[in-house]
Amino acid sequence: MHVAIYGDFADHAFPDVAKVLQRHTGTLFLQSALGGRSVELHLHRGELRALFVDGFPVREALRVQDVLRQLMNSAVGTYEFEAMAPHELTAHFALPLTQVLRSLVQDAHIDQSQLPHESTRFVTVPDAETHVPSLPVTLQGAWRSVAPLLSRGGSATELAQAAFISLDEARLMLFRLRAAGMVTPYRAAGVVNSAGQPTPQFESQVVAAEPEKAGPVRRFLNALRRLTGGA
Amino acid sequence: MGPMKLVISGPVGAGKTTFVQTLSETEVVATEAEASEDIGKKYTTVAFDFGTINLDGQELLLYGTPGQDRFDFMWDVLCEGALGLTLLVAGDKPEDFPHARNILEFITSRNPVPFVVGVTRQDLPKVWTPEDVASYFDLPSEQVCGLNATDNDSSRKVLIRLLELQLSEQPAAAAGA
Fold this sequence. Notes:
The structure holds two protein chains of two kinds.
Chain A (H helix, E strand, L loop, with lengths): L4 E4 L5 H7 L4 E10 L2 E8 L2 E7 L2 E2 L3 H14 L3 E6 L11 E2 H8 L16 E4 L12 H15 L2 E2 H8 L3 H13 L3 E3 L25 H17 L4
Antiparallel strand pairs in A: 1-6, 2-3, 2-6, 3-4, 4-5, 4-7, 8-9, 8-10
Helix pairs in contact in A: 5-6
Chain B lengths: L3 E6 L6 H8 L5 E6 L8 E13 L2 E7 L7 H8 L4 E7 L6 H14 L4 E6 L9 H8 L6 E3 L5 H25 L1
Parallel strand pairs in B: 1-4, 1-5, 5-6, 6-7
Antiparallel strand pairs in B: 2-3, 3-4
């Protein structure tokens, strides 16, 4: 199976990389992620099975958490994922990576270029409250103050005004809440996100269907299908 | 009914101009200028690319937007009343994913347009798959397609997917209204 997942932590925050790897099995190689030291994470469908720093295994729970915290806070350099069969992985433990990273998300350092646009709106996910206990305490407090606004949908600009914080702080907060699985981008057309959850639509935002477009659109679609041989 | 409108957006170098040129039956009006910084190519779009498709008596207007952030004022204007949005991203340029995601989320949180994401360069050996790009973008995999922007069939299939999404949303919206 062709898998090519690679990049640089200058462009991709560690939580985003972990999210992409949720459905994969294999090894994530980080060439010089921790002050020049290499890191290997053996992953199986969202579980961290083994961790190596400069080739040495890291087994103690607190030490594992410390390495992950460092990756969230200051991972640098390139990364590349190699798909493997489960039996090819080393298995020292089975940690649910998403859950662990959620507890560390407050420490995540995110480059400005990766923060959401100030006008992009976010909305709380339906099961957000179930994740609150696993959030860092500081983020729990922030969540309680912004959740009412975000339940209706809000942007960083609106968040900054409501919470009396700077725009950059608001953008960073939204990024962290998203990384923790608490909010998702608001889609005005109303679609499901990758977790299969429909993003809420609000009466005032819904544009009434234009039935008169359906006929011409369907005709155009049928003509396109004929051109491509019905594929 | 008048012509329908499709907006194509995405980072610089994702293949937007090529996609419009491949689909368009008329000569594309491509408003380009020499790039003032190194973007990997000599010319870049500075207004928008315009092309047309006419099938079964129905016209579809294609608008390819510039990829740089300084043109974000244009995205809202072009997306108003659009049939849909196609966001293109080069699968071999993961450094562009954050910007592409930001573009998509900015536009779609403000405009109720159906959209698909087209991941180009799928012919290359080391390229992100559409499924993994979907994960990065927090989208269902059905909404992210592989695309060869130089190929007619491949480009039309992305358009087909978008129109299918457009039609599948209409009954739901009507039921909820």
